[in-house]
Each structure stands twice: as structure tokens, then as C-alpha cells.
């Protein structure tokens, strides 16, 4: 690909492009992961934070987490000096906030000031909401046990912090870390290809664009193979009942026990009391991955509002509100600020779909040459591969959420319909797992041919309809003549 066809800021080589992306958008050689493994501890001023996060699984098992957290003093964020320190603070406070909210028989609606006050300030610095986002649970929460520092090797990375202390939870997070690192290798080349394709006055090198798309396709296929390894060390029932409830947010969680969301104390009054605001945030999910959205931007995949139905355009006129943002647009607010700006940057270049579609439209009057046909074919293969990846995600969600919800629903119905054996049952927890099981039981108990229950994801979406629509929209992008 000719250097003069590229933006001067991207440099003349892929390596120069990678350096530019790292400096400008915090996109490293590992993609949206940091270049090196995250910090394992903070300055000594924050020793109490480091101590409690290391004991988190034990404190949750014994039910002592909430009492311990209420004993903490409110620490200042002034001792955080580097971005790596700010990120570790965000991880710790994110895990503590989720553990406090969901770590009892009933969810806690009010965070202690010792968590909420620094969490609000750290979140503002990193341009993220004060909740356990994908960045906190995945991007900045791992160590590399291998000597090569290869984050694509899922067997050589491990979560620093989990709620349960299980290998299942670490493996669940680390599959995504390896996927991110694998996809990151294609970002510089695809960024260069996107900007080259957007040039109007320079003859395009379609063969080079096709090679870049082939590289993207190969990368997505490798990401898919990593996703398929989820079952190796993560049991579906352990995930559904023990891990997933801690990932839930406070948005659309009325059935799980948070009708108003969560109150975040922020300001201390003269009488010592704290005041704050109620917030409803989406929980962490892979939908907050900048990697997947980068694939969409490059390929020109367009998404509408969540659910099966398409959003209707608003009526014309000044008095009508604008159409609501799609879920895919909204979750950009849950990505680190530099990554969010990177997606905006690449979005402004257009997409490879626009170029492929233009060539297909022109082919009615003049035949495409061999390189142009190869580019169009490479584009279609890339969209089909991304659609296949989304199909694999649906299969994972079915295995790890839908089927366990049905099993839990059947158990719930059997218990309700069974005879009283005189033994007092343990208190029923109220969280995303139990509310999902209740919903499934109300929708027929998950029997045979019954329709899939309208389960909620940790991000607050209607789970299966949303994922199916995203997949369908991906395949639709490959229909160039539509």
C-alpha cells in the first residue's frame, strides 16, 4: 500500500502506525490491552485496598465483606500518580463496589462512602462510569505467568482478582484477554487500510486492501477458536450461579432487587452525614469490548436499538425527540476515554463496506478487474467470519446462561410443587441468577419447545434477542447489492 495514500500521522510503516496509535489512543501492540501486564499493587498509602481485594473471595464466602468495607476510611486519590495506578485503583474499587452490592442475601442499595467517593473520582479521571466495566474485570485485571509475555496464550494469563477465587472465574475473564490480544495484532494494518480506502484522489491498491481483509478474517477466526475453549475450565453452572450475579449492573435490575439503582455518597455535610445521587449503570459485559466495535466500524456493520425490532425514524419536525441511541452506541460510554475516541476516529474514515458496495454497484455497467473482485470477495468473507463469531457467542450464552436458567427454573418449580419435608430452607438470595430463574419458571419452566425466556444480560439488555439481532445485522452487511 502506497505510503502517500495514508494520513501522515499514521507514518510510513505498520510499526510507525502502531506507535502513533499507542501514543494517541492507548491502543498498544496488544490492542486495547496495556502493553505490559497491569500493576499488582498500589503505593503504600492504599495498602488497605490491596489487602481487602486479595481477601475478597474469603470475605464473600464468610459474609464479612460488607462489615469490613464499612470500617474503611475514605482515602484520597491524590497519591495516584501514573495511569497504571489509576487503572489498578479502578479495578479494586470496581470489584469492591460489586461485591458490596451483590454480596448478601439482598442487594445493597447504598454504597459506603469509603468505596463510592474515591470510585467516583477515579472513574472521572479514566472517563469511565463507577461500575465494574469490562475494562476493570478484563483489560486491567490480569497477570502473565509465561516468560514470553504473550497475552494471546490463554494458558499463560491469569486474573489478578476474582469474586469467587475459582479457576472458572479466572478462565472466563482470561479467554477475553487472549481474544483482545489476538485481535490487537490486526488493528494497525486495518487502520491503515481504512484510511487508504477513504482517499478519493489516490489510485487505490485493491490487492493490498484485500490482503488486509484476509489478515482481519484470520484474526477473527483465531478469536473464535479462543472463545470455543471456554468450556475447558469454566463450568456453566458455576458461572451462572456464582460468578455472573456479581457482574450485574444496576440498570434494568428491578427484578433482581435494585428498583432505584444504587446510591453513591459523594459529599460530606457539616453534621458528618453523606449525600449523593442514585445511579443506574449497566454491568460489565463483552459488549463493552472496543475490539468488537472496531471490527464493526471497519466492516461497516450498522446496529439499531436492542431487541428484535428495528428503531423507527423519528417524525419530522422540531418538537419530536431524536431517536434513542442504540445499545452499541451507549456502551461506548463504558469504554476507556482514549479507546472511545479511537473508535470515533476510525468511524470518521468511513468503512470498507462503502467502497465494496460502490464497486458492486458499478459492476452493472463495467466489469470489475481481478483485484477489485478479490477485494469485494475478501470483504464478504470478513463479514461472514464476524457473523460466525457472533453465532459462537450466542452458543456460549445459551450454554452458560439460558440452559442453567432453565435448570434452575425446573428446580424452583419442583421445590414449589413438592411436599414440605419439614426442613427449613436457607434464605433465597435475590440477584441476577435467581431473578433469571424466576423469569424462566414464569415463562414455562424452560420445558422442551417453550420459547426462550426474555433473560437480561449483565449489561441490562434482553439477552438472546439482542445477540441474534447483532448477528443478523453483521451478515446483512455482506449483502452488498441490498
Automatic annotation (TrEMBL):
<feature type="compositionally biased region" description="Polar residues">
    <location>
        <begin position="427"/>
        <end position="442"/>
    </location>
</feature>
<dbReference type="InterPro" id="IPR000898">
    <property type="entry name" value="Indolamine_dOase"/>
</dbReference>
<feature type="region of interest" description="Disordered">
    <location>
        <begin position="304"/>
        <end position="326"/>
    </location>
</feature>
<dbReference type="Pfam" id="PF01231">
    <property type="entry name" value="IDO"/>
</dbReference>
<keyword id="KW-0408">Iron</keyword>
<keyword id="KW-0479">Metal-binding</keyword>
<feature type="region of interest" description="Disordered">
    <location>
        <begin position="416"/>
        <end position="482"/>
    </location>
</feature>
<comment type="similarity">
    <text>Belongs to the indoleamine 2,3-dioxygenase family.</text>
</comment>
<protein>
    <recommendedName>
        <fullName>Indoleamine 2,3-dioxygenase</fullName>
    </recommendedName>
</protein>
<dbReference type="InterPro" id="IPR037217">
    <property type="entry name" value="Trp/Indoleamine_2_3_dOase-like"/>
</dbReference>
